[in-house]
């Protein structure tokens, strides 16, 4: 699969295109060399034959047939290796002179030039060889064949063709290998950028793209992206700091206002005024809950990896306690409340934070599931990890909004009319991140009119052999202490 993915990369395709262009150039160059060498030698052979024919024609004109026969016999005698081929005969194929005893079968072909094989049928005593000759008619009813042994030439041409084929094969192989190596090197750099980008998209904003120090294009791209990320984080931290400061600064006067409204509520005798004061107290409680949630999320996000002392926690028993707390609320809405809990499942974490995470998810499921609906709570082990799932038959979350639902104050369009601040899942996400877990959203009943939502939280299972011990900085207040100080 990795090889197939490597072949699909744009870098490899570009290298493949370069390979085709390069191979075509090499092929044209080798073809030109072949044409200039083999073609030249073939033309030279034909010119040699033509020169011998011209010499014999001159002898024939000056000395007649007897002189032609004498000249052919002299040339045959001077050429014991039979590089030059001659045959002079009558129309009845009676040999008059030459080093061939018979006419080749190709002698009847039109055009004058023939290529044939020298063998024993022609009176050749050695191994078969290739020859090229020209045949023409001589006055007086005679036929003359003048040719050359071209077996060495054909062998040389075959060697050149083999060299060209091997050269093309080696060129293609090297180009393919080079393209693969170049693509692999580039793909590795791109994969590093992709992996880091995925981690950043999953919320790990502290991640940065590594560089090699070569100051090449990829290093420049990585440096630009890192600077962009630094700027984004700086702006986000600024906005977050402002919102947290506003929440912190407004909580104290809002608490005082709420207490004053509650005092007024106890002193008012008029029923209508008491109702108005009670509504104002409820609104103040809602505002305080929102500010407290904001500050809680801020504390969790600033803790990062310095969480309070993590201890073994029975996730199954913790979820059972939360279900016992919310079961009555589900019964009031006539909702089925199914529990499939393995109480032996253990994790390592902060019990209070985990209980708040579980409570938020169960509360959301009850809140967004209509009456007569169903809720399923599960705690299981999956591939060595602890899994907590909450499924409901509520309004669900559209696929295009699932990636934004963990943002602060974000609420799905269908649920905007229901009470809430849009901070519950942000708090859940922060707790999951602190415990090195992951959270996913899925349709509980795909294809239904009300598909519902299934929230799956995966946490590392507690391992006594690898227990992590972490401490809270001495200057960090607990949430209760900070609330009291406010």
TrEMBL record:
<keyword id="KW-0597">Phosphoprotein</keyword>
<dbReference type="InterPro" id="IPR003660">
    <property type="entry name" value="HAMP_dom"/>
</dbReference>
<feature type="domain" description="HAMP">
    <location>
        <begin position="184"/>
        <end position="237"/>
    </location>
</feature>
<keyword id="KW-0808">Transferase</keyword>
<dbReference type="InterPro" id="IPR036097">
    <property type="entry name" value="HisK_dim/P_sf"/>
</dbReference>
<keyword id="KW-0472">Membrane</keyword>
<dbReference type="InterPro" id="IPR005467">
    <property type="entry name" value="His_kinase_dom"/>
</dbReference>
<feature type="transmembrane region" description="Helical">
    <location>
        <begin position="12"/>
        <end position="35"/>
    </location>
</feature>
<dbReference type="Pfam" id="PF00512">
    <property type="entry name" value="HisKA"/>
</dbReference>
<dbReference type="InterPro" id="IPR003661">
    <property type="entry name" value="HisK_dim/P_dom"/>
</dbReference>
<dbReference type="Pfam" id="PF00672">
    <property type="entry name" value="HAMP"/>
</dbReference>
<dbReference type="InterPro" id="IPR004358">
    <property type="entry name" value="Sig_transdc_His_kin-like_C"/>
</dbReference>
<dbReference type="InterPro" id="IPR050428">
    <property type="entry name" value="TCS_sensor_his_kinase"/>
</dbReference>
<keyword id="KW-0812">Transmembrane</keyword>
<keyword id="KW-0902">Two-component regulatory system</keyword>
<dbReference type="Pfam" id="PF02518">
    <property type="entry name" value="HATPase_c"/>
</dbReference>
<dbReference type="InterPro" id="IPR003594">
    <property type="entry name" value="HATPase_dom"/>
</dbReference>
<feature type="domain" description="Histidine kinase">
    <location>
        <begin position="245"/>
        <end position="463"/>
    </location>
</feature>
<keyword id="KW-1133">Transmembrane helix</keyword>
<feature type="region of interest" description="Disordered">
    <location>
        <begin position="466"/>
        <end position="486"/>
    </location>
</feature>
<keyword id="KW-0418">Kinase</keyword>
<dbReference type="GO" id="GO:0016301">
    <property type="term" value="F:kinase activity"/>
</dbReference>
<protein>
    <recommendedName>
        <fullName>histidine kinase</fullName>
        <ecNumber>2.7.13.3</ecNumber>
    </recommendedName>
</protein>
<dbReference type="InterPro" id="IPR036890">
    <property type="entry name" value="HATPase_C_sf"/>
</dbReference>
